[in-house]
Amino acid sequence: MPLDFTSAVHYHLGQFPPGAPNYARLMQGLLDATAALARYDQMLRGLHNSELFVTPLRGQEAVVSSRMEGTISTLDEVLLLEAEFGPGGDERALRELRSDAVETALYRRAMNTAQAMMQEGRPLSESLLKSMHRQLLSFGRGAGKSPGAYKHEQNYVGERGSGQVSFVPVAPEHLPGGMQALFRLMDDEAMPVLLRTALAHAEFEALHPFEDGNGRLGRMLITLMLWRGRAIAEPHFYISRYLEDHKDEYVRRLRNVSAQGDWDGWCAFFLEAVARQAEANLAAAQGIRDLYEEMKPRFADVLASKHAVAALDYLFANPVFSNSRFIRNAGIPGQTAARFSRVLLQQGLLETVREPAGQRPAIYRFEPLMRKVRV
């Protein structure tokens, strides 16, 4: 099918980085976004184990960010896949599964791996970016799209299968210089981290440096930049829901950067997105925390064991789980863990996703939590 460039916007060659932001226009949005993000971050800092409460939100982010690129999966599917094959996953087995669910699981894996690498002291660099991309496209539909390598041919953005090109990213011969300029801006601590992140996200999407996976990787970079810039204590801020809900404006604002040089309009939209999503994330995390506090005495009552909190913690971190892994990994004596599963099933706190069969263990779902976090 021939490509139609009639209404295409072309990359803004030679116009990055832009001049100084219009602080008079952006200051109120910057203050609002900073305050909302701080409230969310403060709530997480006050939790005894924030990972318990944000693991489901990270699952939501993987589902929604992948859905924005046309990858349709559910949180139940992704968590079932991880329950069955573990966080690392057996690649030979995963290749047999529905590709959309696998792609979403790879998003979660790439984000978790990047977090671990940065915690070990690895900088947010082009090398780390390529490593994330390699994992994101390690197999499935993206495996043939040069995982871990920048594009060598011109790519285009448009509606899949229509032939209509809406945006022409930077040409491959200009990409090395473009990436160097991008990372110089990302490292410029003289600029407020939220504005730096806004500009970097727009520029990354305009460069579109890889053959595939740019949208998902660009949204991961938002979280990693805010974390590295100390706007959040841990990399637990997820923005894709707001961007999906306002996708038309999101795309239009990004296009206007190249079409009209409207960096300030993009930054204003981005700051609004951060503020509103921080409020939504705060409410979601508080809801998960409230459920945890509600379940704590109930687990203590029905399980009648000093290990009741350990069981509860495991279920919040793994709301869909293999019974064999629960028995092995929850930090509870094996016979006690097996009894817990039976009691929680009888009490209606667990639901059976898959009955045990031969060598395959039962898989259960902690439905009270899943009802709160499905997207």
TrEMBL record:
Catalytic residues at: 208
GO MF entry, a single one = ATP binding
Task: Using the record's annotation, list all stretches that form the Fido domain.
Answer: 124-272
- Signal sequence span is none
Task: Provide the protein name.
Answer: Fic family protein
Give any Pfam family that matches: Fic_N
- Per the record, the domain of life is Bacteria
Which organism was this protein described from? Ottowia cancrivicina
Query: Residues that bind ATP, according to the entry?
Result: 69, 208, 212-219, 250
User: What UniProt keywords apply to this chain's record, in alphabetical order?
Assistant: ATP-binding, Nucleotide-binding
